[in-house]
Design brief:
By secondary structure, the protein is of the alpha/beta class. It has helices at residues 16-27, 39-51, 66-80, 103-131, 153-173, 198-202, 212-223; strands at residues 7-11, 31-36, 56-60, 85-88, 135-140, 178-185, 234-237. The protein has a single domain (7-243), classed as NAD(P)-binding Rossmann-like Domain (Rossmann fold), CATH 3.40.50.
Length: 249
């Protein structure tokens, strides 16, 4: 899939899955806006893409801040003239006992992970609607929206909210030809893949732990303009792990 003459904004793109998405879209011809709070790594990511001859721009953004999000969208349009695709990838986790989690902890996770998807999608949609071309949004949730470990309440709530928000905004923005979809990654290794154990891979019916390019491929499908009948969907990309029954020995 090619994305020539397409402008893609990716939040949380300085590291991990976000960086993998930035590299993937840039290699396929897109003008990529790398957005992140981490200005050092964000600038490094954008510079790395440019060194490979690809089009990239770093715009700092704290997705908890409504003004930052507006600036991100306005500056993108100022630099590239359009917004075609938004990938809401930025997120944080706070794994604490329910008895230790503060209101501030809870609000930080929900505001970073879920509220930001609403705000960023709304502000991008302003420009997508104005252009008359529509656009595509992908929200990154998690398989933890469907199953949990102890002490993951805030993270699970935020990721579940993203799934529900996705289908709600798909319905609201459909008349403007803006598609909104959601991906729930499973175990996607962004560190040292070589250090994984055989038992890590064997938990997956696919036979391996995932990598960022697995999520990128799903994003390409959901944002390809030819797939204009796909909206409001929740795509689980986890190597089948959530479908496998695992009994403790």
């Amino acid at each position: 899939m090619k994305f020539d003459n397409t402008t893609v904004i990716i939040t949380g793109a300085a590291n991990g899955i976000g960086r993998g998405l930035a590299e993937g879209y840039a290699s396929r011809g897109a003008q990529v806006v790398v957005s992140d709070m981490d200005q050092t790594r964000g600038k490094e990511t954008a510079a790395s893409l440019k060194e490979q001859g690809w089009s990239a721009l770093f715009i700092p953004c704290d997705v908890r801040n409504e003004d930052d999000i507006r600036h991100l969208m306005n500056e993108t349009v100022s630099q590239f003239g359009r917004i075609d695709i938004l990938i809401n990838n930025a997120g944080v986790s706070r794994f604490k006992s329910p008895f230790d989690m503060t209101v501030q902890d809870w609000d930080d996770v929900l505001n970073t992970n879920a509220r930001s998807c609403f705000l960023a999608t709304r502000e991008a949609a302003v420009h997508m609607r104005k252009s008359g071309r529509g656009g595509a949004v992908v929200n990154l949730s998690s398989t933890r929206s469907m199953r949990s470990e102890p002490n993951s309440e805030a993270y699970a709530a935020s990721k579940g909210a993203i799934v529900a928000l996705t289908h709600a905004m798909a319905v609201s923005l459909g008349p403007d030809r803006i598609r909104v979809n959601c991906i729930s990654p499973g175990w996607i290794e962004t560190g040292s893949y070589e250090e994984l154990r055989p038992e890590d891979h064997s938990q997956h019916p696919a036979g391996r732990v995932g990598v960022p390019s697995d999520i990128a491929k799903a994003c390409y499908y959901l944002t390809d303009p030819e797939n204009d009948f796909v909206t409001g969907t929740h795509l689980v990309v986890d190597g089948g792990m959530t479908r496998k029954m695992i009994y403790e020995p």
